[in-house]
Amino acid sequence: MQKVSVEQDYTMYNEEDHNTWLVMCKRQNKLKEATVCKAYLKGFHDLKLDITRIVRIDETSKLLESITGWTLTPVNGLIPTRDFFYMLINQVYPITISIRKPWEIDFSEQPDIFHDVCGHLPLLTNPDFVKFLNAYSIVALKYAGNDRAIEALGQLYWFTYEMGIIVEDGDFKAYGGAIITSEGESLNLQNNDVPKYPFDLGKIFRTPYNPFKLQKEYFYINSFNQLFNSLDTIEATLAEYLQSFEISKINITEKVSI
Ligand SMILES: [Fe+2]
Questions:
Q1: Distance between CA atoms of 205 and 157, rounded to whole angstroms?
Q2: Ligand 1 centroid to residue 101 C-alpha, Å
Q3: Rounded distance from Cα 111 to ligand 1 centre (Å)
Q4: What is the pLDDT tens value at each position of the chain, 258 positions in all?
Q5: Which of 46, 131, 249, 251 is deepest in the core (most CB within 10 A)?
Q6: Read out DSSP for 30-69?
């Protein structure tokens, strides 16, 4: 594995950067009590995340390690997929060091430290969620050479890790990082016109998504334990999906040849 970790030189951030962090955290704070799951809120508190200054990754990493044994490593944005999964298997989570510019507060195409920390990090304090992430990564790496399988597994990643919702006290709450850091997605949780389906691996494998638009559907779980336990059948469900794809390909070929 090539070296993808870098140093977080804290002097790289100027006051404008810290202010961007503060503005986004304050905006998120307004929404999050009502829209974000309890495990996230607890994790945010336990990690002592400071909304006024950009986090120091090494300090937060020590705290996280004392809770679930996971550690953080600073990186320069997106890293190769295989490296990412190797890290997750080894209970290391990459955090992008850069922060978006003030004009990107509403939307940034690239991950930044705000998305990685305020979107994903608090959930890494939840033992069941990190068990899921770890086990998922092992499967994802195993199928790394199979494009069709990786696409399906990417959809699972999207509808859980980024766009996952959980039922708490009868309400839909977000645990997916892309909902937690997006006002539009958060508002979708209360919108009854946007369907929310029970978590179903087979259905998720057949559901494509557009990362650049508000989502048209979501999948909900009832507990993080349910998410982890779903992996018991992941390879069987994936095999079934891949087989059905092959069968439909044969049918299309037959129709063409007629
Ligand atoms: Fe993300």
A1: 10
A2: 18
A3: 7
A4: 457 899 999 999 999 999 999 999 999 888 888 899 999 999 999 999 999 999 999 999 999 999 999 999 999 988 888 899 999 999 999 999 999 999 998 888 888 999 999 999 999 999 999 999 999 999 999 998 899 999 999 999 999 999 999 999 999 999 999 999 888 899 999 899 999 999 999 999 999 999 889 999 999 999 999 999 999 999 999 999 999 877 655 554 555 444
A5: 131
A6: HHHHHHB-HHHHHHHHHTT--SSS---HHHHHHHHHHHHS
What 3-state class would DSSP assign to 121? helix
Expressed in angstroms and rounded, the spacing between residue 120 Cα and the centre of ligand 1 is 7
The protein residues having their C-beta less than 5 angstroms from ligand 1 (an ion) are 177
Ligand 1 centroid to residue 78 C-alpha, Å: 10
Q: What is the dihedral of CA 4, 159, 227, 91, to 10 degrees?
A: 10
Cα 56 to ligand 1 centre (Å): 19
Residue 99 Cα to ligand 1 middle (Å): 14
